[in-house]
Amino acid sequence: MSDNPSFLERKDIRPSFKRYAIDAFGAMAQGLFASLLIGTIFSTIGDLTGIQMFGQIGGFAKSVAGPAMAIAIGSALNAPPLVLYSLAAVGFAANDAGGAGGPLAVFVVAIVAAELGKAVSKETKVDILVTPGVTVGIGCALALLVGPWIGMAASWLGSLVMWATDLQPFLMGVVVSVLVGAALTLPISSAAICAALGLTGLAGGAALAGCCAQMVGYAAASFADNGWSGVVSQGLGTSMLQVPNIFKKPVTWVPALAASAVGGPVATVVFGLQQNGAAIASGMGTCGLVGPIGLYTGWVENGVAVGPMQWLAMALVCVVIPAAVAWLVAFALRRAGVIQPGDMRVE
After folding, report:
1. CB 287 within 8 A of CB 30
2. Torsions phi, psi for 149 (to 5 deg)
3. Measured distance CA(306)–CA(322) in Å, rounded
4. How far is CA 217 from CA 25, 199, 201, 203, in A?
5. Count of C-beta atoms within a 10 Å radius of residue 334
6. 45 exposure class (CB count in 10 Å sphere: 0-12, 13-18, 19+)
7. Quick one: pLDDT at residue 6?
8. Whether 245 contacts 226, CB under 8 Å
9. How many CA atoms lie within 13 A of 258 on its CB side?
10. pLDDT tens per residue across span 227-236
11. What pLDDT does 240 receive?
12. Per the CB 3.0–4.6 Å rule, which of 75, 80, 213, 333 could disulfide with 260?
């Protein structure tokens, strides 16, 4: 770095795919989890127990989804305090204006508002007025101008995927399951993708199957290298732990991808499994059991009589099939000498 950094360098405004598509998008998913998703879980507990307080807690959490996402994005972009706090109003405005595509609107608008706020931060003697004025003013104005269009585009794309899945459940079951599952393992937020597109219904079921297949699949396929600690860290944590191994030896991804390719159409064709809980749950897999909880929440909210077939479908799609397929494929690749001991070990 030179002794005289440019204005953008000094302000830490560094546009890049990693910073926006990975860091900011991933942070947005955490903001969604800490508001909409956890709120949905509390609301479900309230519905099941009849304890009103849980429903109220859930309502409070869900109501701040927009601000939570925007602040999370600002944090990922290293926004200074005044910018970060100002993003609460921006997130609320973008999420409200974006409608069904609110998360995507928040993503776009919050990035612009955060970077502009950073640009003016501490540049004047009246920073206490200028920084929040620019961040909130431009951010909210942008939300009102482009939020509805972004929301309509996201809603249209999500509806297209869901329509295509309903029309071609086998083919789209494979496609959605593999692509969303792959996004979960890569440093891209599958949860944010599903939330931004409002991916529910049969497509949501395929996405859920793909994500579970990656996590449970890796836990089973790498059991020889990681044991039970790997089952917990990958099956309930994240399959992203395997990214270094994928970069070193891409073939180690084959068992989990095969599990996604099998699990998706089983979910859509065999069971007609629909994930109608919060859209973010479609992209969470078995992380903290959020995916299965979202599936159950959808059943409850839509008046589905939950019986043995529903529980069987959940167990097979989320756990049994991913584990069996991934373990068998990994076993075959090990026998063929393609995967060696230690290739799937996580630190």
Report:
1. no
2. -70, -40
3. 23
4. 25, 22, 23, 20
5. 17
6. middle
7. 87
8. no
9. 19
10. 999 899 899 8
11. 81
12. 213
Rounded to the nearest 10 degrees, the angle between the axes of helix 81-98 and helix 65-76 is 140
Burial class (CB in 10 A: 0-12, 13-18, 19+), 278: buried
Task: From residue 29, give the alpha-carbon distance in Å to each of 24, 40, 105, 219, 263.
Answer: 9, 15, 13, 23, 24
Q: What are the two backbone dihedrals, phi and then psi, of residue 275, each rounded to the nearest 5 degrees?
A: -100, 100
225-229 long-range contacts, Cβ below 8 Å, gap at least 24?
225/341, 225/342, 225/343, 225/344, 225/345, 225/346, 226/344, 226/345, 226/346
Provide the pLDDT for residue 39: 84
- Residues (pLDDT < 50) of the chain are 1
Over residues 31-82, the pLDDT tens digits come to: 887 888 788 778 878 877 889 999 899 899 989 999 999 999 999 999 999 9
Residue carrying structure tokens 């973010």: 280
Reading the block at residue 342, the tokens are 């230690």
